[in-house]
Amino acid sequence: MTITQDGELVDNTVVLQDVETILQQEFCCYGYKNICDELKDKGYIINHKKVYRLMKIHNLLFNRKIGSTGVPRQFVRFRKIKAEKPLEHLCMDTKYIHIHGAQRNALLLTVIDAFSRKVLTHMLRFNIKKGDVIVLLSLLLMEYKIEGITLRNDNGSQFIAGVVRQFLKDKGVNQEFTHVATPEENAYIEALHSNVQREVVERFEFESIYHAQMIFNRYYDWYNNHRKHGALGRKSPEQYLRENDLISGPYKTEKISDIVSNFNPILSKN
Prior knowledge:
- A 5-stranded mixed beta sheet has the order 6-5-4-7-8, sandwiched between helices. Strands 2-1-3 form a 3-stranded antiparallel beta sheet.
- The protein has helices at residues 12-23, 32-41, 48-57, 130-144, 157-160, 162-170, 187-201, 209-225, 237-243, 257-261; strands spanning 2-4, 9-10, 44-45, 89-99, 104-113, 119-125, 150-153, 174-177.
- It has 10 helices and 8 strands.
- With 270 residues, it is α/β, with parallel strands linked by helices.
C-alpha cells in the first residue's frame, strides 16, 4: 500500500498503473527517480527506493519496453466511432470509485455498445487484473455470440497484457487502443463515466464494495431501461433498440452478465 498526501491508502497496483501511464508518453524514457518525482506530483508520498523496487519487479526500468511481446497493439485510426448497428463497436474502460467504508478506491470496469449506448456488462473490484478482464469478456462473448466486432480501450495495464490481446485475437475481436492523453478517442464511455460521477458517485457514500455493487447494478439497469439519451432521440438504450426492432437475434440479452457482478474471478492472481 502507498499513502497519498490526502491520507488515503492506495493499493500498489494503482501506483503501477500511474507509472505505466507516465511511461507511455510518446517520448518518455524516465528512470525510477524521475518516475518518483512524477508520482509525488500526483499526490503520492513515496520514496525512490520503493519506486525502484516496484519498477524492477514489473520490468518497467529504463530501457525496458512495455507490452512489447505477443500481439502488437493497434492504435485507433479514426478519433470518432461511427457505429451503424448494434455490437459493431464496443468501448471498455475503468473508473475509480471511492469506497468510503473501506477508505480506499475500487475500480469499476464497464463495457458499452457505441451504437445504442447500452451497458453490456460491468465489474467492480478493488483490483482488476488481466485475468479479471478475460473473465468479463468471456462471459460477454458467450452472452451475445458476436463476431467481427471492434473493442476500443485505453492503455491500462489490464488491457495491454499479452494474454488479453491474444485472447481477443483468438475470439476474432479487433482490439484497438486510444492514444495517450486523448480521452476524446473513447468519448462514449467517457460520457458514461461523467454521468456515473454526477448521478452516482457524488450522491452516494458506499459502506462497502458490496453496497457499491448493489448500487451500480441498480444504476446500470435504470441506465439501460429508463435513462433518456439525447443522441438516441430522448430514448433509453433498450427503448431505442426495441423501437428499431434490434432487440432480438445476436443482440438478445440472456442475463449471463448478471453473473459477473457476483463472480469471484479465479484468474485474479494472474
